[in-house]
Amino acid sequence: SQKIEQNSEALNIQEGKTATLTCNYTNYSPAYLQWYRQDPGRGPVFLLLIRENEKEKRKERLKVTFDTTLKQSLFHITASQPADSATYLCALDPNTGGFKTIFGAGTRLFVKA
Amino acid sequence: ETGVTQSPTHLIKTRGQQVTLRCSSQSGHNTVSWYQQALGQGPQFIFQYYREEENGRGNFPPRFSGLQFPNYSSELNVNALELDDSALYLCASSVDLNTIYFGEGSWLTVV
To answer: Which residues of A touch B100 (CB under 8 A)?
Structure first.
């Protein structure tokens, strides 16, 4: 079956450390992958897009990698802060014709001061 | 502040009723997408409109329908509400794949 998997368990890290979140997908050949942040009761906020021909993309303290062979994207937050605590969602277009976006269930990140 | 406004923010409907949810996008954003998000899940894509035409659709039945208007506003209509339709409904307006803004959503409870 086709699906996107993100760590269902929450990730707890200490302030200042690097948080690494994983997004795995099966049976898709996406042209790109997106990452979003979502706070409780709020709409998602778009963070980064990485295309299939890009290995890595950076934006301030954020870094995303995309390995189409492993069918995996890694999302890193360096020098993490308590304000980074949120749920992080990955999403892709399965590239099956017509526009469509498929989201993972998200990983909850807690950064402790 | 995303510039995307959804209404109403919360509503309660009875099973079998119909509901209309509204979204006001940013000016110039000619693409709007609608999503359903159940608690603890990621958003599920319902459909997308581009320049007032449906551009893509997820695995939702025909009782989920939409409209996009020339003034960048849009509607999601759901007929014959079922209990499982209870969720947060999100709209997202965009110009391109790197410029996407979500609204804060409409919480729908079906009783």
So the answer is: 34, 46
